[in-house]
Amino acid sequence: MSKGFTLFYFLFISFFSFAQTCDLSISGQVIDLHDNTSLQGAVISIEGTNTVAYTDDNGRYELTELCRGELTIKVTHPFCESESKTIILKEDTELDFKLEHHLEELNEVLLKGKLYQEELNSSITQQLKVEDLETFSNASIGDALKTLGGVSSLNTGNSIVKPIINGLHSSRVLIINDNVRLHDQQWGEDHAPNVDINSAANITVIKGASALKYGGDAIGGTIVIEPQKAPLKDTLMGKTILTGATNGRGGTIATSLIKANLNGFNYRIQGSLKRLGDFEAPDYILSNTGQRENNISLGIGLNKIDYGIDFSYKLTDTEVGILRASHIGNITDLVLSINRQEPFRIDDFTYSLTSPKQEVTHQIFKLNAFKKLENIGEATLQYSFQNNDRKEFDVRRGELRNQAAMDMNLKTHTLLAQLEWTALDNFDSEFGVELNAQTNFPNPETGVRRLIPDYDMYSLGAFATTEYTLDRKWILDAGIRYDFSSIDAEKFYFESRWEQLNYDELFPQFETGRIENGQIFTTPSFDFHNVSATLGATHTFNNSWQLTTNFSTASRAPNPSELFSDGLHHSLARIELGELQIDSEQSFKIGAELSGSINNFGFNIQPYYNYVNDFIILEPSGTDTTIRGAFPVWQYRQSDSRLFGIDASLSYAYENFDLVSNLAYVNGQDLEQDLPIINMPPFNISNTLTYKKNEWNNFFLSLNSQLITEQNRFPDNNFEVRIINRTTGDFEDELLDISTPPPAYHLLNLKSGMIFQWGEKKLSVNILVNNIFNTSYRSYLNALRFYADEVGTNAMLQLKLNY
Amino acid sequence: MKTIKLLSLSLVATLLFSACSDDDDVVEVINEEEEITTMNVYLTPEGGQEFEAFSLTNLDGGVTDPVVTTSTLDANTSYTGRMEFLNENEEPVEDITEEVIEEDEEHQVFFIIGSGLDVSTEYLDSDANGNPLGVEFSLETGETSIGNLTFALIHEGDKEAGSDGILDESVGGETDIQYTFDVTVE
């Protein structure tokens, strides 16, 4: 249409308008039907006229100077399905529109979880998308998370990988899998999270305690894992990933299938199988480090946009071998292992697993329902049940050879009720209540005294959060959460230990009078009240740089391990003791994030300071002499501590190349003792150079360099031991160095791939080579670093088929 | 409407909570089953009566110090000896020695004689592969002397490497028991 015609049309309409009484108006709000947020930039027009209005930041619009009579109003938005409504206009009218996203867009949102991100207000976060996760199909969640700045991992060998966020891990990091908080005995440093990486479509790491809806005890942070969601259209989507690896001589097959319908009904099935044999370090085989995993998840749901119900079931079944040479009997064995420099037991490669090993199954049943309430928001009700079975096999003799040395069952019921309240202009608020009931049952048939006792725990949490959009440049948010928990345990102590720890005077109320074979039966019972809160602001500058600041305080009640643990830790040759007098720890964290770009250069800088009142730490406290010899005793203690650090990411793009650098530094200090905190990730920097050529079937080649420096800040827990020289038969004093971190190391990794497409089907072929130069190194954050090197070169071929 | 919802919610919660309280079960005491609480060394002088020469007992995994007894050995005497490993926390007392003998290919007792002590030992038994086990042994004393005598029970060590009775690095394995007695020969 020519400009002249438009002008003519405009004039004609204006002229025509003059002829009648045209002083009526229509106003209202345009809302995103899916998440009840207001839609900015929607176009509201009257068909057949040139009258047009746009919605403002709050989704509000106003059409003025309208004439009486019938008219058709059309609302369009680039992301949404257009909608029209015909009315007979007699007076000034309020008219709200609810728009549904374009199917494609909605799917995009659902699949990538962008909606989620909006709820995260001023949280300092980082994300992993499905494309990144897929390359770790053969590895673990912890391995994938490590690629994010500020996230490292605490390993036991190479298969048990626990994420560390800003220096903190285990009970201080919450893991949310598909909106269910994982209760899988996460207190243990050698307990990997029970999540199948192949079931995740998106992972968000929230640094700090600002995501209060998930829990108030995220002193370190929260990891939110979301599965692939079903789109709202008639479709059958499938994906299969096949990975073969040279190191471990095995691989993984992972597949998922989603059947979705436009009417909202959908069902999902996803599964993966992993088989790996012994891994290999550059110079030797790491005997008994194979791994088996069988995972499945099923789901069925109905999503009607404004209401829905969904049921899902997830099972992870894992069997992981622990380096044979790490099972030792006493301090002398540990001294010998450290001096030997390579593991004592190096057997031929095998796929079979023997003790020591772990067998863990974790099941999650979840039923979730939501309903959008007009003029209020959205209400959600969710019930979940988790059943965690963990068996740990030690090297034993006789009939007990095949009997687990630790066999624990943890059952957790959770009821979650949440209301998202959006009725107030510019406010997006959320309220919720969480009820938990948990039972731990250690099987007495193990013939080994319980590490963690029988207990029942009940907890109740309630939270309120709100986000206020001040204007285009400022968003403020605040939240508060209260948690109450009550734990009732039943535990046998050696009478001598009970008295040694002075518990007979401190806690006589826990004694029951029942004493068997020198063990006293006690019923420790504790209540904890915890309050956490967050306050933050996000500012967008004119040049679209963004500054986020967030203050959060989190309070964590001691976990059962910190309260009750009581026994010998085999791979570390130490006796670990809980402490009944331990109380909650409270963190105060301030974090900021500045992100933006200048031409082709992008940056993201996240500094933080975290002060923790009564930080719970495990530290050496004495020696016990057993029949195997003397062992150091490590006990839990509380001490005011602080951590500060910075995570930064820089990127630069030039033509077909892009360069991304991530670096992270954290500094932890026990303020009372004026000592560095143990197991802080050393300064590390990772650089990735990628060459992309879309014309060549999306070819890419990427080279990654990782430098992990030596940790120079560590507490000196070394101790002198008087051990018998087994050759001369005389006692000698030996310094047992269990503190000094291993030297810095540098690794090079390579990744390359292409995508072939025909019709709806898509085949991606990737080649990954980790540790190209077969570098021998040890990691400070690996509990087995005293025994063996880390794995050498691992070349993998990965085929991914989307259909 | 709200009240009904709240009511039903609390009802569900009550059901949930009461459903999973199983306090009726009595928690059993666990006695460490394979644990060795006691090591006894019996010696029989040539033509004499067997006696308990050395003994080490620790019932609570090291909280209290082990109970140790030693005897003085006669100079220039040949003894035959046997080891006894017990778990005294079991009822009745479990004799772990039987298990050690049954799994002789995985076990070996080492006798480590400190400098100054004029004593020598020899193995009197062996496993199916002909490697020494050390539950039965002989002990010969020389002149009057004082020194350390260490007994070590090693599990899953390299028995070929240990066949010379020397517990060096090549043996490896893990230590089930290790104790050093102050021994006087006079």
The tally of beta strands of chain B, per DSSP, is 10
Classify the oligomer.
heterodimer
Number of domains of chain A: 2
- Output the CATH topology of the largest domain in chain A: Maltoporin, Chain A
Largest sheet of chain B: 7 strands, antiparallel
Q: Distance between termini of chain A? A: 42 Å
H/E element sequence of chain B: HEEEEEHEEEEE
User: Please, how many helices of chain A?
Assistant: 9
Number of distinct beta strands of chain A: 46
Q: What is the overall number of helices of chain B?
A: 2
Mean pLDDT of chain A: 89
Strand content of chain A: over 45%
Describe this structure in words.
The complex is a heterodimer of chains A (803) and B (186). Chain A has 803 residues and is mainly β. Chain A folds into two domains: 3-101, Sandwich (Immunoglobulin-like), CATH 2.60.40.1120; 223-802, Maltoporin, Chain A (Beta Barrel), CATH 2.40.170.20. Chain A has nine helices and 46 strands. In chain A, the strands form seven sheets. Chain A has a 22-stranded antiparallel β-barrel. In chain A, strands 9-14-15-12-13 form a five-stranded mixed sheet. In chain A, strands 1, 4, 7 and 8 form a four-stranded mixed sheet that branches. In chain A, a hairpin with a 2-residue loop joins strand 35 (585-598) and strand 36. The longest helix of chain A is centred in the N-terminal third of the chain and has 16 residues, at 3-18. Chain B is mainly beta and 186 residues long. Chain B has one domain. In chain B, the strands form two sheets. In chain B, strands 1, 2, 3, 4, 5, 7 and 8 form a seven-stranded antiparallel sheet that branches. The longest helix of chain B has 18 residues, at 2-19. Chain B is globular, with a radius of gyration of 25 Å. The termini of chain B are far apart. At the A-B interface, helix 6, strand 25, strand 26, strand 27 and strand 28 of A face helix 1, helix 2, strand 6, strand 9 and strand 10 of B.
